[in-house]
Structures are given as C-alpha cells and as structure tokens.
Amino acid sequence: MMRLVQVLYKKEMLDASRDKRSVMAGLYYAIGAPIVMCLLFTILLKQLSSPDALEITIENPQAAPNLVRFLEGHDISHSEKSSVKAIRLIIDTDYAQDMSQGRSALVTIVADKSDNKLIKSVRRLEMSLARYNSEVAGLRLISRGIDPSIMRAVNVQTQDQATPDSKGGMFLGIATLSIIIALFYSAMNLAIDTSAGERERNSLALLLSHPISSTQLVLAKVAAIATYSMVGLILVLVVSKFAYGMVPWEQLGFSINLDLMFILFCTLIGLPIALMSASLLVFVSFMAKSFKEAQSYVAFVLFVPIGLSMMTTYDIATEYVQWAPIAAQQYAMIEVIKGNELPLMQVLLSSASTLALFAVFSLLSSRMLKSEKVVFGL
Amino acid sequence: MNLFGNQLVKLLSTSLTSLAIAYSGISYAQQNTALEACYVEGLEDRLMCGSVSQPLSKKPSANNIDIHFAVIPAIKNMHPKEAVLAFAGGPGQSAIEVAAIFARNLKYARESRDIILVDQRGTGKSQLLQCDSGTIEEQFKFNDQALSFVAFTKEETGTCKEQLGIDLSYFTTVAAASDFEAVRLALGYEKLHLYGASYGTRIAQEYLRQYPSSVASATLDGVVPMQQSLVAIGDAIDNALNEVFLDCMAEQACLSQYPSLADDYQKLLEELRKTPITVTIRHPRTFKEIPLVLTESKLRGAVRMALYGHTTRSLIPLVIDSAVKGNYSPLAGLLGNEQTLGSIAMGMHSAITCGEDWPNLTEADRKQFGQSYFGKMMIESLDTVCPIWDVEPVEHDFYKPVKTDIPVLLLSGGLDPATPPSWADLAMVSFSNAKHLVSPSATHGVAAQTCANKVIGQFIDSLTFSDLDTDCLDKDNLKQYFMNINGPVAHQETEQKND
C-alpha cells in the first residue's frame, strides 16, 4: 500500500515539476511577500518615528528664550521650511511675567492627535515640556531651600518584562501571518491543477482505472502538494530572515530577529499545517465541477485560515480561538520570536487537531472519488 | 515508513532540546556564566545580571570577591561578539546604579551592541567600601573651621578603616582592571568598545593598557590623564566659576540683577573665613528648624558641586546674591541637594586617591596645586587621611601616558569644573589614532549634555573620525541664570494681575 503511494507521489512530483513556470509562479509569493513587507515596514517606521531633528512652529519665542533653548537641546526647533511638522507651540504673551512671579506660564500645543504621523512627535514635544516643567520646578524648590525630591511623593519604578525582541507587537503578528500564508499560497495552483485540472484533462479517470484505491491517490496528491508548501515555507523563512534584518527596527526601540531556531521551529510546526492545507485544497477542488470554479472556491476557503491568523495578529483572539489550529501555531511562533516560554500544550493540541483535519479532508476526498459523478465532473 | 519515523523522532528531540536552550535567556556569544533578569532604578528595561568570582590579590592565599555586572541588551544585536563597556566615575560610583544615565549616554551605541556595566571592586555590589557620612542635620551643624577638624577627620578615618577591616591596596585601578577582563571573558565578547566618564576614563585607559587586544575603541568623556593627579582639579574649579561671573557680566539682564557678583562672593568668603555664620534654617526635606554653621568650605563646596550640571549652575548667581543679603535658603537648598550625589563609596575613593594621586606629589606639585583653594584643601585632606589608610603606592609606570594606536575619541566640556579640555590634550600625547572634541558650553560629562551620544554611536560603528557629525557639539545649550527664585526671567514691572 505504502509502496503504491510512493510511486503515485513520484508521479505527482514529476507532473508538477514539468511546468516549471507555474511552480515558480507559486513560489513567487514566498520570495516576494517578505521583501514587499519589509519595504512597507521601513516606510511605516519612518512615518511612525519622530524625526531626529523635529521642526515645529513656535509662536512668540522671544517671550521664553530659555524654554526655546531647552527645546533646541532636545532637537526640537522652530522652522519656516516646508519640512516643518503641523505642530504649533504658542507661548502666551504673559509668559515672562507669569514666570517671574511664580505663576504657571501658559504654553499651548496645537496639533491633530488623530494623525498617526504626528503622534510620536507630539508626544515627544509634550515629554520635553514636562521635563522642562520639572527642571524649573526643581530649581524653584532649591532656591527656596527645599530638596526637589519631595515632589516625588511615591517613587514609581516600572519593570518592563519585554525584551527588545518582544516589543514588536503588531509587526510580529504581520510577519508571522505572512509566513503562515506562504503554506497555503505556494501550492494553491498545484492543488487545483492536480485535482480539478487533472479531471478536466481526463487523466483522473485513467489513473483510477488502475488497481489503486482512491485513498492512495488522495494521499499521494496531498503529499506532493504539502511538499511544495514546505518548500514555500522554507523559502519564505530564509528570505524573511534576511529581509527583516534590513529593516531599521531599532529606531522604534525593538527588533525582529528570525534566528535559526525559529526557522527550525516553524518548519516543524508547519508540517501538519502543510498537510492540512493540501488536503483542504484538494477537497475543495474536487467539490467544484470545473477548474475555474475550483479557483473561486479555493480563494474563498483560504479566508478561513487567514482569518484565524488575523485574529492572532491583531490580538483579538478569544480564549477558545487561541486553541484553534493556525491561530495557536502562530501564537506559538510569536512567543518563540519574543523569547518567551513555548506554549507547549497549545502547540501539541493544535497540531493534533490540524492533523485530524488533514485526516478528515483526505477521507472526504477519497470518499468523493468513489463517486463517478465527481470523477467525471458531472 | 519506520525509517522515516525514526528520523522524525530524532529531528523532533534534537530540535526540542536546542529550543529549550534558546529559551534559557538572551543568547550572548558563548557565555559561560549564569545570568538572570534584573532591573535598576530609573530604567524600565530588563537587564541581565551576573557575577564573576575574582581573587582579591595575586597572592595564592588571597580570598575571592564577587564582581557584579549587568548587561543592557542591544535593541538589535547586529554585533553579538562586541559590546560597549562603561566605566563609572567618582572614583567610587557604582556603574550598575547609574545604568539609566549610561543608557542615555550610550543610547545610539546600544541600538546595535550590548552595554556592559561592571561594579568596580569596592563599589556597588562588588564588596562596597562605604562608611556612614552623617545626616543633613549633622553636616549643617558641623563647624569644619574649628581647631579640632584635623583630629576629627583622623578619628573618623580610623573608625571607617576599622569598620571596613580590609587592606585598601587591593582596590586600586591597576588591581581592578583584571576584573573587567574577567567579565568580558565570562560573557564571551571578543572585542569591547570602552566608554569612561570622569574617573572612569582613568580605569578605561588602564584597561586599554593592560588588555589592548580586547579593545576595539575607547571613548573618554571628561578625561583624566594618567600623568595628572586629581589634586590638580583646583584650577578647573576656579576657572569654571570665573566663567559664570564673566557670563553674567556679559548679559544685560544678569548684570543689572547681580551687578557685583564676583566681589560679593569674595567678600562673603572673607567674612566666613574670619567667623563662620550660624543661622537657623529649614531642613530641606522635613522643614524642621535646624542650625546651619556656614563656613567658607561649605559655601565653596556647594558652589563647586553646582558647577557640575547645567541646571544647578544656573542658580549660582542667585545663591551668592541671596547669601550676601542674608538669605541662606537657596544655599541650604544646594547643600541639601548635594546629598543626592552622595552615592560615592568613600573607602574605594580613598584607595584610589591615596594609592594613585597622593604618593607621587612632588614639592613642586604641592606648591603649584596648593595655589588654588581646593587644591590646597585636597592636599591637606590627603595628608591627613592617607597615612591612616596606608595604601601601597602604585608602580611608577602607572603615571606614564598610555601608548596605543586603537581609535580613541576624547570629549571635553569647555566649562568643566573637574576635567578641563587641557587634561584631554595631556592624555592623548601617545595616542596615535585619536580625536579630541570640545563642546564649549558643556560642563562635566559631555555625552549627557549634548548630542555627543549620537557622535559616540557613529564613532563606535565606523571607528573613524572623518565622517563624524560634530557640528551639534557647538550648540549653546546653557540654561539662563535664575533672576529670582521663580525662574530665568527678570522681575517685570507690569500692571497688577489678580491672583
């Protein structure tokens, strides 16, 4: 029985590799996606981070020369150039008088806080002003003979358990999402071609006229498709490793580093997903009556795993979804990148259920192939 | 199928064991010491802490001490075999305690490399050599101009020596250098970029001299040359204070507010020299009424410490002017504020100064350095305490300038009251690949006050001087002087505002 499957597997692999262009087309995703992703990330990071030299509009600066100089020390300065950010700092006309009399001197920040490109710069300005506030307040206390440390009634210390590798947040989610999708996309064409396509070329009936069971045929096809998925996965991992290394994450204070261990780990947990994905694609393709119909169904069905993955990416997975196949594996991948403890139970359970799904889809496909209606696409 | 099965099990088990190793912590280059996560005050980031056991001396019977260190992990570790080793100042400061300051000064270097902080032997967690230094009340009340001062100091030192019960000769710069090398070996880094501030530049140079093959570059911020005794500091203090007076005279608002600042200061000092002033003031924290005996050395000391940073420096005209007018509150504020700097391990400090800065003082040195108030005071103080501490003097070679062709970046502040730019020039006489940058408006510690942290990051990345962007060091970021107790704005005569 296994021997027959092996022969069939060889035949499928041979078949698939004949059309080199379409095989490559399937793998383009694996090569292209990380590169496109990194270009996007690089642009996004630039937008999100505040520029080294922040240029804003300061109104009435002559009223507060000390404050203006302080801000310049923090690389925030007034500019009339076109590169100036849409942030205005208005210094009140009574600033000098209020300052000399110990009243709160008014400065107003005018900016649109819903503008994501500005938010970091606005926060930086607010933070710098807060520092100036405590600096002057501290000196005011010293000149009254009081230790400024009394202003800190409670000494709040935060111990952030994150590491630079774990601060990636949503970026990590998107990166792992693109890796998981590679498993589905790399072999999608092949899956449709080897099932719906073979039926349309009438070679499926010919195959089944040999003394082989439909289960053997389905298993061989699934194995061949899964092999291509795995090639796609390894490709996406290797390309990602280098591409993500080029993104200047450090500007936002974190990094995404895909080391060899992560690549091995992904390959390992990717195997059940590849089998499940292959059996799902084959099943859906056989359900359709024609090649074109299969393409539409497959595209539609792929929304389910992508949806599951998205829930992890955007951290909206509920308690139960976290244990679902794909979602759980992706969660584990993120944890591994972060350097946290591996959620072993989740990985084992979701891998088991992924394999169970593979069994169910394969069984259903082989059942379907027992019906002549399906074999001849009637 | 069985064949595949076995293969799979093997693959599975090997990957799982290596995964387990990967989880054990941040993976440094072959580290062979246990590290655990730790935190320090003022820094949210998770650091990795550990220690190495080091012999106290080269004698075979010597006891061991634990040298503690912390690693601030790089943001994106692009050079896992390199790290930045930061040396703290003082002497006597704990590098781990001031991790937040180092993290800021080395912010850009940290983007791609780990930062190592080591508590030098005698400081912080590495066998701290500290004695009690009295409360604010005791310090305020104490009259250091009384005849018994020398006797008092001797007694204090004797008590401290007894309390520590250890030979300070084991805690000199030369002895400490090997501890830093042991930490490097334990963490498995191949090359280090050194960053030293103040006294930290001396130990950095000594490390560079003893272990040149471990060093990729050195950045010295506020440089102490090997040839120079710390006692020579007096001139720098006088010059830095003089700059304040000149500055204030050059500024219209300051001049009209404080027209005769320098003269007022001299007059007040003379008065105090004759008779200390005793007043009742409020305790800076508890607000209780406590006595303050104001002496010349207390006034000079408070003003000196205020010169170290930009913020407190801006209070000096106000403090002097108020004291002359009989209001000692601003001065008490400065004296009380000094407490926050008080994390210097005095035992270790004495080991360095008595072992390295005192024994080589020639008669000519004593005469030259003794001309300034602080030089004279320091010589007198060392003459009093060093015979009690009895620290073995360092070898004479220690005072030779370090010869190296490793790239060295030297940073000085033009207004530095401790390590003026001329000291850096002296230090670099035998550096063949060095650059000295002066930030005219910086005081002590250029990286903390200017964009030098960016320059240091660029320097460590490129190890060349040609493409460093140093223009920003010229930026004037001095604070304006306080014109009254509310801020840097002179009193404004305008219509009354309703409160």
List the helices and strands and how they pair.
The complex is a heterodimer of chains A (378) and B (499).
Chain A: H1 2-18, H2 20-48, E1 54-59, H3 65-73, E2 76-78, E3 88-91, H4 95-100, E4 107-110, H5 116-142, H6 170-185, H7 188-200, H8 203-208, H9 214-246, H10 260-287, H11 291-301, H12 303-313, H13 327-338, H14 344-368, H15 372-375
Parallel strand pairs in A: 1-2, 1-3
Antiparallel strand pairs in A: 3-4
Chain B: H1 2-23, E1 36-40, E2 43-55, E3 64-72, E4 82-87, H2 99-105, H3 107-110, E5 114-118, H4 136-141, H5 149-164, H6 173-187, E6 191-197, H7 199-210, E7 215-221, H8 233-250, H9 252-257, H10 261-274, E8 277-282, E9 289-294, H11 296-306, H12 310-313, H13 316-324, H14 329-337, H15 346-357, H16 363-369, H17 373-389, E10 408-413, H18 421-427, E11 434-439, H19 446-449, H20 452-462
Helix pairs in contact in B: 5-17, 6-7, 8-17, 10-13, 13-14, 15-17
Question: What's this entry about, in short?
Answer:
The complex is a heterodimer of chains A (378) and B (499). Helices cover 65% and strands 4% of the residues of chain A.
